[in-house]
Structures are given as C-alpha cells and as structure tokens.
Amino acid sequence: MKIIAYGVLTDERPLLREAFDRRFGDRHELRCLEPFLDRDTAPTAAGHRIVLSSVNDVLDAEVLRSLAGTGVEMIAQRATGHNNIDLDAARELGLTVARVSSYSPYSVAEFAWALALAVGRRVVRAAHRTREFDFRLDGLLGRDLHGRTVGVVGTGKIGTAFTRIAHGFGMRLLGWDVAENPECLALGMEYVPRERLFSESDLVSLHVPLLPETHHLVDAAMLDLMKADSVLVNSSRGGLVDTDALLATLRAGRLAGVGLDVYEEEAGVFFLDKSLEVMTDERLARLMTFPNVLVTSHQAYFTRDAVGQIAESTARNVEDHAAGRTSDNTLTVPDGRGQ
C-alpha cells in the first residue's frame, strides 16, 4: 500500500514512520514530504492510494478532484480539525476522509497556560533584556493568578484540562459551552452567558472548534466587554478571533496581554521559514509590534506524546479503511454515509 504524507515536520517524521511500521510492517510504503498539499503539489500523489494531510494543506474541490484522478482513495487528516477539507466534494468523488478525533489534551492545555504566564509575567520581554545584560525590572510588573477569574470558552477535553490547572492556581472558574461538563462543575466552575464571561474574566482562554457559528466568536463586541487589564489566549483555531477587531483593541491600549498560538491567515506562513522574506501579511506584522502580544506558530499540540498519538491514530484510520471498517474518526465513506 503506497501512502504519501504532506506537510511533515522534521520531528514528526520518525514518529509517523514508527507508527506505520508497527501497524503495517513491510506491507506499506510511506513517502513523507515537507511541502504542503495544494493544487501545485497534488500531482505528486499519483500512484498512491492514501494521502496523509495536515491542517495547513488545501483540500478544496479542485485539489480533491486532482487526487481522485490520480487514484487516491482516502484522505487521512493528521489533526482533529478538518475545516480545510471540502467534505461535500470528497463525498461526491467517493473519497474516504478520516481525522484524529482526540490526542493528549494536556499538550494544548499546558501550552495555553505557558502563553498566559509568559504574557502575564512579561517573560519574553525579560528574557530579551537579560540576554543583553539588562537586569532592570521596569515594565515587568505582573499580577498573581490566585484569586482572579478565568473564563474558559469551551470545556471539552482540552478545556477541562486547562480548567484543572486553573483550579490548582486557586482561580475563580467561569465557563461557556453548549453543554455543562460535570468534571468542570465538580471543580467549582460556574457556567455563564458568553457576555458575562468576557466582562468578568481576568484571563480568557479559547478551546472551541472552528465552525460557522464560532467564526469570529471573539469580535469587537466581545473585546469591548473585556477588562482593559485582562489577558486573551487562543490556542485553538485562528478564525475564532477577529484579527482586525483585536488590532483595534490593542491600538486603543486595552488588554494587558494576548497569547496567540494560532492566526486566522496562518496557512502559507506558519511552519515555514519566512525570516529572509518581506512579511506581506500586514495584520500579522502589526500584531508582532505590540510588546504585550506573543505569537507562536501553532505548536501547542507539538509534544512527543501528542504527535505520537496522532501518528498512531492516523495509522489506525488507514488500517480501518483497508479493512473496510469505519470508526468515530471517519468523516466520509465512498457510499456517502458519513460517520
């Protein structure tokens, strides 16, 4: 079975190969490519039955038609999110699509706290100073987390892991979700309307998927409700935050800090070395100019534990497809019956 993977990171490659070797042995041939999948790279899938895609690959109708025309029969997404895949087109083309429905929630939850602490305690600014042997404390004044209010937007597995850490800090817990999570309630979380969460929280962290109804969930209205000295963290999906509204808020001198591991126009930028190029994305470049903003390149999930689990789940999805099975990870199957 010939398999091709796109957008494979250097540290991901051995974990992906190990997972497929364990499950298939010499019954498979895995080709790993660093470039992302798009209309230009799609022809390289010729002769392969399975495509292993990443979140920054482009799998629109045109690309899917190209893949189907070369003999590809399955798209195995190496991620939970799949908003980059045209599922309707995949069904029409008879392509099986599967995703990784879950992996270590601690990887993202812990990194969200790393962002919150880094911006709240001015860690990056302090590190830059001390590298220049500047040991002044001017401008580095932070705040205790203990006793303050955290707003958790989305209390699934990752949001719950984030909440447990917040509980350990001794924070007041506010939550917003379509359904209340008993685990979070047991920790003392109070579920409140979204407007109240944003207005009362000293720290807001986003842990919901990107869906049509959550696109720009954090818009100008929500940002206006936030305390001027509060912190916003997004380690979920870039499209949850209206970047233009966030820039306007920052220009007005509001928010003590913003930690972003995702950005709504990150495709074609994140995971790539752009250091020798002119940054043509003016909004991203503007974000980088604010001293209270920390941007990382979608690395919250990037731990050996999580990436290993993603690789194992992807290999299992391929095995299920080869055996004619479906699972909770299956999004589309050839006869059009999505799971």
TrEMBL record:
Keywords: NAD, Oxidoreductase. InterPro entries: D-isomer_2_OHA_DH_cat_dom, D-isomer_DH_CS, D-isomer_DH_CS1, D-isomer_DH_NAD-bd, D-LDH-like, NAD(P)-bd_dom_sf. Gene3D superfamilies: NAD(P)-binding Rossmann-like Domain. The keyword Transit peptide does not apply. It is an enzyme of class 1 (oxidoreductase). Its EC number is 1.1.1.28. It comes from the Bacteria. CDD domains: LDH_like_2. Residues 318-339 are annotated as: Disordered. The keyword 4Fe-4S does not apply. Residues 114-300 form the D-isomer specific 2-hydroxyacid dehydrogenase NAD-binding domain. Residues 17-330 form the D-isomer specific 2-hydroxyacid dehydrogenase catalytic domain. GO terms for molecular function: D-lactate dehydrogenase (NAD+) activity. Belongs to the D-isomer specific 2-hydroxyacid dehydrogenase family. This is 2-hydroxyacid dehydrogenase. It comes from Streptomyces dubilierae.
